[in-house]
Amino acid sequence: MRPMKISLREWDARHAELTAAGLAEPSYGGPLSRHAAGGDRRLLKLAFDNSAAALRLWNFLLTEEERLAAARAAGMKIVGAMKDLGTVPVMAYSFPATVAFYPDGAWWLPCFKELSTDLFAIADGLGIDDSFCPVRAMLGAFVSGAHFPRPDLLVASTGATCDDFSAIAQRLQGLGVPILWWEAPHRRPPDPGEEGVELPGGLAAPRAQVEFVRGELVRVREALGALAGTAIDDAALAAGIRAANEIRTVLADLREGVFATPAAPLPSLEMLVAEMLALHFCSDRAEALAVLRDLRDEARARAAAGEGVLPADAVRVFWVNPVADLRVMNLLEDCGGRVCGTEYMICHALDLIPEDVPPMEALARMVLADPMAGSAADRVRRILRDAQRFGAEGLIVSRIPGASHCAWEGAVIAEAAAAAGLPAVEIEVPPVADALRPALRTRIEALVETCRAGGGRAKEEGVGA
Amino acid sequence: MHPGVSGRIVYSSPFVPAELIAAHGFVPERTIPRRRSAPPEGVCPFAQAFADSVGAGTGAAAAIFTTMCDQMRRAVETVRGRDAPPLFVLNVPHTWQTAGARRYYAAELDRLGRFLQGLGGVPTADADLARVMREHDDARRAGAASAAGGVTPGDGAAPVAVVGGPLSAGDRVLFDCIARAGGAVVLDATEHGERALPLPFDRRRLGGDPRGELAAAYFDGIVDAGRRPNTELYRWLKARLAARAVRGIVFAHYAWCDAWHAEAARMREWARLPFLCLELTGEAGAAAVLAHRVEAFVETVRCAP
Ligand code: SF4
Ligand code: SF4
After folding, report:
1. Torsion sign over Cα B126, B131, B134, B139
2. What is the pTM of this model?
3. Domain of B165?
4. Which of A191, A408, A413, A427 to mutate to test the interface with B (most CBs of B within 10 A)?
5. Above 0.90 for ipTM, yes or no?
């Protein structure tokens, strides 16, 4: 079947067709509609890629709760990593019989459940209202205990993180949930004469900051060792880093292959989900690798056959920040655009972790390479560099309701893009954006039209930002 | 003032030690900013007011921001390139329970010292710093003593605590509102009150290691909602609420200030006292509503058994 986007209902027929043709699915496989029946109602409104690789991706994503429950039942230790997005799981998976996940992922629960759960209501009741980012759903998820098992160890980075998350996690701790806090400081450039260290992503930080973070990670490592009942040596940690890098390499190939190919071989929605697998491997590192390899191979095969899921003339848009409502990724494509590059605040989880330095230092460097730990100016530089590399014609900053960083950063990023001749818009996307759909469509269509008319015009006419 | 050095260093965070600035020959000026522009949706009015005041060109030799909150950490970027003086971002760890965090803060103070020297400040010998620290400590002790003498509420005045983050110049009207309503602020636990004071210096350490003592007094002494964990804030409050026989809490936080906003519900449950939560916007027009609410609250406190 040629690549195309299909609805959930169409996926059921497609699933039957694939299984009849001999598709061998992993244990978590099956028709996608069962997830909607189980409460993930947003799926009913999404358009999906029709490949078996996409089927595997969605099934993998949507069965994480079951995997965590199985891990608990099997006596494995469960680590809840919070906020650092990419570092602590690399350490945790280096320990035997230990899995890690991000409770932060509850960010998307209100979307998947179409606000049908009481997650926000619970957060409201605890004084965490909608002036906070949708990650407040995590508080509701902890209290209700309905969406993930209570971790055996909860580890949260703080310091140069968003205030939303830090305050919400503190509220959780105030309810009696123990948290091991560790400091991820605000990255600064080395002062003149101060020894600097190169970080992933072409950034730099003072040696003193790297050393400090290394010390913080040692505390986390010790806590993980106490939980697992055994310490691990640097060789085991280095192996964990290599395994993470293997995943990152496949993901990089996938992104490169999809973003650089004129007719997008995969839709932006599946690409977003794929990127998220890099964070904690969706609670199964080996399987995450296999899922990503499948996707990469599918994208390669389609590109080689000159087939895409979108027309080759779709306007190439660089997307900044993840969307709280996944359906908006579909909307971009409905409006004639496609994603050709992303900065979902997790570049440090995509860049390779250095393997030529001791593992704890390598992880410390990764922490400091977090785009949210540094200045907006650093973030803008990376965005513009990647946008240029992937040939973006326009840029969308999707603002996260309530997020403490968005109010300051969004305009800075959009203005910098416009100044660089890249038409840009900033949109705000709530967890279920249906009511705003006409307005969002208008803004995205305006951007797409501006880009089609030539990026320079956008600048002259002040359409950007 | 040392020869060749003049100028004010402006800052708003209590984690910036005035002693260090003064010892380098500058005049420390802890700004209480006034709202100059309406902050965009999502922006803390206090952070905006401070950024505006710095960006408008204060004639200061430098301005210091800290990383104690996301909003301030990002506000500094909007100031760069405006009519701003040289800027310094002091990295204040949010965690406080480890020796590493304490050392990091101390190293940041050393870096601030180098920055001040780069502006023409005098190199500071330990003895000079110790002398300045003694002076500031004396002044604080004197202030604390007179405040302690003045905390007894007058006849019939309702003893209340004001708890929260910073207050911009316009919002300090809150204290007048409380007084006019018949309340007495017996505990100022805002960012400009005693909550945000360093510990009294250990005079014995001033001779040997004044820098270490300075860092320890500020880092260990200031309690704040944004510290992780923020248990010390509650411990600190518990002792003072009881000692001052506080009968009601006015809790003030700025719109979009996550660190303080998130504590409101928890503190209400914890304190088990009449509790008024005010979300401040820095707008002059909000004073009338504020007065009204404070009046009703003080009345409630008065009538509470
Ligand atoms: S979306 Fe932004 S505000 Fe929300 S948790 Fe993530 S970084 Fe924090
Ligand atoms: S009031 Fe809150 S958000 Fe505003 S500057 Fe202070 S700590 Fe930051």
Report:
1. negative
2. 0.95
3. 155-303
4. A408
5. yes
